[in-house]
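Course assignment 3, question 2. Fill in each field.
Student: A.L.
Task: Predict the tertiary structure for the chain below.
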Amino acid sequence: MKPRTKKALGILSIAVIVVLSVILFCNVLVNRGAKGRLYDDVSKIPYRKTAVVLGTNVVTDNGSPNLYYEYRMKAAADLYHAHKVSYIIVSGDNHKHGYNEPECMKQSLIALGVPDSVIFCDYAGFRTFDSMVRAKEVFGQDSVTVISQRWHNERAVYIAKCKDFDAIALNAKDVDMKWYYVKSHLRESLAKVKVVMDILFHKKPKFLGEPVQVG
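Answer field:
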């Protein structure tokens, strides 16, 4: 092997190790930040006035029902019917015509027996970071229950901790189809790196706006 090639491979190896170390560090940091604040059982989760349901598309890219969405809606409805929350903020993306995650979530919850009067739409929850910060700064909440899958909840609870407000989370059922599981977890490992950077560099949500009174 030529010395130049050997040196290049050495530099590449170091770069790969550094990148993997950063990913591992950020994931451990976020997961530890959420430790002890995630619940799988509705009956065991403490009461909080307001839940924040994190948005996702109703259907997958191939047009089939999105099970991540369906499981989140069921978990939110179960939480409300168990009297563990009084109000629900549905937070998601509404950045283009014909795409409205919060309104879809609201209609799904109504179909599951949650009253329209207790549901509040956050139309600027473009990212999990935005959803959590807006729950505090726009919707005036200092204590919430987050609803999503466990890997997503870890990041949301970590954001709340860094922004100095209380958040616990109910873990919706995960999707056990292998491809979706692997894809979501790989993407989430990188999202946790990004959220650590967002916190470190004092990132702001894309939009804040006027305060909204819940309840």
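Instructor remarks: Residues 198 and 204 are 8 Å apart (CA to CA). Strands lie at 38-39, 50-54, 87-91, 119-122, 143-149, 166-172.
Grade: pending
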